[in-house]
UniProtKB/TrEMBL annotation:
Residues 5-107 form the DR2241 stabilising domain. Residues 110-205 form the DR2241 4Fe-4S iron-sulfur cluster binding domain. It comes from the Bacteria. This is DR2241 family protein. Gene3D superfamilies: 3.30.1360.190, 3.30.70.2320. Coiled coil: none annotated.
Amino acid sequence: MKLAERLSAAVAGGIRRIGQIAIRPQDGVYLLCHIDDENSDASLLEKFEGSATARDLSTWAEDGHYRFTKGELSLKRGWLLQLSSSEELRQALDHFYPAAAGLWFAQHDGRLEIEHLRDKLNRQTGMYRFARTLSDAGAQRLVSEVCGPGHCCVKKILWQLDANTPLEDSEASRFDGVTGDIDRSQAIPLLCREACNHFVAEARKASKAEQDAKATG
């Protein structure tokens, strides 16, 4: 079954949310809006049609800053997007949260591949090669300082430091990838299968700081 068809079946089965997006099937179309606008007067929301609009809606936050990672908890409000087919729904959700629905289905199917942090960092070259030497303690600390809703990322972390070293307990490591108060069975969680480029960049800085501290200590 194609991804759009699986997505349509999931919505028909009760899925109503992904990230900060509320999904409502209505008279053969799909209506998307910000979860905080779900109970607002629809006549007051700006109307859009078509999946391409999702790219613009997801690029800039309410305060105008560029959303460098789509997992940011900063999606702007005030719009209502109408989609005419399950394929348009798939395309729109891929603009809002790239590959998120596909990762969820892959996890359901038991075929989701996860890359642990050490494997990710050991692949880094050039200026980012310094990230390879980040200590385990530094990596654990960085997770709590960079990831999780407290730092505006609302993805569920699936990776560990390595195959034998889980993440320490923290708000970031506990977060389940579902935003807001909703029955978890009605939401597609945002999944983090590998550390993002932002985390790698922060790992490089933290590793250099560790090396500098050793040199001056």
